[in-house]
Design a protein that fits this description.
The chain contains two helices and twelve strands; from the N terminus they run ααββββββββββββ. With about 300 residues, it is mainly β.
């Protein structure tokens, strides 16, 4: 049974970015037009790889699934898929708590410095805390601080077994540039990671800093369309030690309010520029992927 599930997932991963773009076009055409959006924006879920300053209303509960695909290294075949199931609650005003579990799929062959793998595994658990410091309704812009903590038994890049611990710290800003029509967002990111691999016994520490920008336009009441641009720098050590590489990702994002209580976000990013340390290459396919895609579905209950 596991082999059959693995074969289906790998087949789906082989469709790649072209199918992802086709899916956006199809959903745009088929999405219901009868859903009425509230005045203004709720930025909690409208972005793909970024976050907004909104954290939900007091007492709100949500179920969410997030599927992320990463495709392409310097050579060989590289496909990695993660599927996260999450529960979100807002126990007090301006504070959101999210817990989640992640399963991963890797299809890797002929990639330098990464062992060949074709596997499906439970990866680990995560806890995401967000607190809104400024509300756009009462301030020039919205601002939220977010801390996501995760513990994994599978490395998300290589698929190797071990013990991995990390955090994602984000400072999120957003502002309506044109009321109820255009919204802009900025994320400042710091991601320290610790890893100890089971087979080799090696230990690694790394960190990433980055900045991300997004803009979304309300095309119709239930549909937003825009894009995200994200720049990352990776270092050895959690204290931003020796520089390892850098990459710039750009791509479109689409948000659909399917019903009053359900939503869908689709996002795709391509590495437009990058450079590993000590190289003159125009892309960093050592530390980052060529393509990234994300699908998020959520429902209030």
């Amino acid at each position: 049974m596991a082999d059959a599930v693995e074969a289906v997932v790998v087949s789906g991963m082989r469709l790649g970015a072209a199918t992802f773009r086709t899916a956006i076009a199809c959903i745009v055409a088929l999405a219901p037009v009868s859903v009425n959006a509230e005045e203004g924006f709720d930025t909690e879920h409208i972005f793909g790889f970024m976050i907004g300053s909104d954290v939900g209303n007091h007492g709100e509960r949500e179920f969410q699934t997030e599927t992320t695909g990463r495709f392409g290294k310097g050579s060989g075949t590289y496909r990695a898929l993660s599927h996260q199931v999450e529960i979100e609650v807002v126990p007090v005003p301006n504070f959101r708590v999210e817990v989640g579990g992640v399963a991963t799929m890797h299809d890797i062959s002929g990639v330098p410095d990464i062992d060949d793998r074709r596997q499906l595994n439970f990866q680990g658990l995560s806890l995401d805390l967000r607190y809104r410091l400024l509300d756009r309704d009462n301030a020039p812009f919205g601002m939220t601080v977010a801390a996501e903590i995760h513990g994994n038994r599978i490395d998300e890049i290589s698929g190797a077994k071990g013990r991995m611990y990390g955090s994602d710290f984000t400072l999120a800003f957003d502002r309506e540039l044109v009321p109820n029509f255009v919204i802009g967002a900025l994320n400042l990111i710091y991601q320290p990671e610790w890893a100890r691999f089971e087979v080799s016994g090696l230990s690694e520490k790394s960190s990433i800093i980055g900045a991300a920008f997004a803009g979304m336009v309300r095309v119709r009441p239930d549909f937003l369309l825009g894009g995200e641009m994200r720049y990352f720098r990776q270092y050895e050590g959690i204290g931003l030690g020796e520089f390892s590489g850098q990459a710039l990702f750009v791509g479109p994002t689409a948000y659909f309010q399917l019903t009053e209580k359900s939503r869908l976000t689709l996002s795709w990013s391509m590495q437009a520029w990058g450079r590993p340390a000590g190289s003159s290459a125009n892309l960093d396919l050592v530390n980052f992927e060529r393509h990234q895609a994300r699908l998020v579905f959520g429902v209030n209950f």
